[in-house]
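Q: Hi! First time doing this. I have a protein sequence and I read that you can turn it into a structure. Is that right? Here it is:
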Amino acid sequence: MSALNSDGKTLLSLLRHWTLIPPSIKSSWNASHSTPCSSWVGVQCDGKNQFVVSLNLSGYGISGHLGPEISHLNHLRTIDLSMNRFSGPIPSELGNSSLLELLDLSVNNFTGQIPESLGNLYRLSYMSLYRNSLTDTIPESLFTIPHLQTIYLNNNGLTGTIPSNVGNMSEIKILWLYGNQLSGTILPSIGNCTSLQEIYLNENQLVGSLPESLDYLEHLAYFDVSSNMKYPPAFGNCSSLTAFAAVSCALSGPIPSSFDQLSWLTILYLSDNHLSGKIPRELGNCKSLVDLRIEENQLEGEIPSQITELKQLRNLSLSENHLTGVIPQGLGINSSLEHVDLSDNMLTGPIPSFGLEII
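A: Yes, that's right. Below is the predicted 3D structure, encoded as C-alpha cells:
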C-alpha cells in the first residue's frame, strides 16, 4: 500500500490541534490509507487528481483550534466547520486558500480579529462567521472581494464603523452585520451595492439618517435597523422591499406617507419609538401587508378606515399610543386578521364583532 498523500497528511496534522475528535473521524481518518478521498468523513475530492476540494465537518462537536495547516490544502473550494466548538483565532493563513469559494466558520467560539488576509480570497462568494466571539473592526479587505455575494458577520463583538469601501461590493446580495457594537453612520455609498437584497444592521450603535441612496437598491427585500439610534425611515424606489423594521430607534416625527410606494411590503415594524402625528391613510395602499406593528409611540387621531382595506393583514398592533375615535367597523369583517392589539389608547364607541383574538 502506498504512503498517504500530502492532502491526507495535512488533514491528520489538523487533528493535532483538536482536543475533542468524534469517533467517526478518528476511525475513518486513517494514516494507513493512500488517500483521504475514498472513505474519510467530511472529505470530498475531485475525481481526476484526488485532490481534496471540500472539507465539511459541520455539527460534529469538534473542539480545539483550527491549525494554520488548513492552507496547505491547495485545492480547497469549500470549508464548512460550522456548529462546532472551535476556539482561538481564525488562522491568517486561510487567506492563502486562493481557490476557496465558500467559507463557513459560524456558530463556534473563535476569538480575536477577522484576519485581513481573508480579503485575498478573490473567488469567495459566501462567507459566514456569525455567532462567534470575534472582536475589533471589520477589515476593509473583505469588501474588496470581487464576487462576494453573501456575508454573515452577525452576533459577534465587532466594533468600529462599517468599512468605508462598502460601496465596492458590486455583487453583494446579503449583508448581515446585526448583533455587534458597530458605530457611525450608514454611508451613502451603500447605494452602489445595487444587487443587495437583505441588509440587517439591527442591534448596533449606529446613528444618523438613512441615506437617500437606498433608493437605488431596487432589489432590496429585507431591511432592519432596529435597536440603533435616530434612524428615521426614508423610502423611495425600493419597490422590492418586503420587510422593514426600525424598532427602538428613537424615531420621531410623523410616519412618512411614502409607504404607499411599497406595494410588496409585507412586514412593517416601527414599534417603541417617538413617532407622532396621525397614522397615514396611504398605508391602505400597501395591499401586501401581513404584519403591521406601530405600538409604543405617540401617534394620535383616528385609526384610518383605509387600514380595513388591507385584506392580507393578519397581525395589527397599535397599542400604547394616543389614538382616539371609534374602531373602524371594517376591521371586524377582515377575515385574514388573527391578532389585533389596540390597548392603551383613548378609543371610544362599540367594539366590532371580531372573530379573532383582540386586546
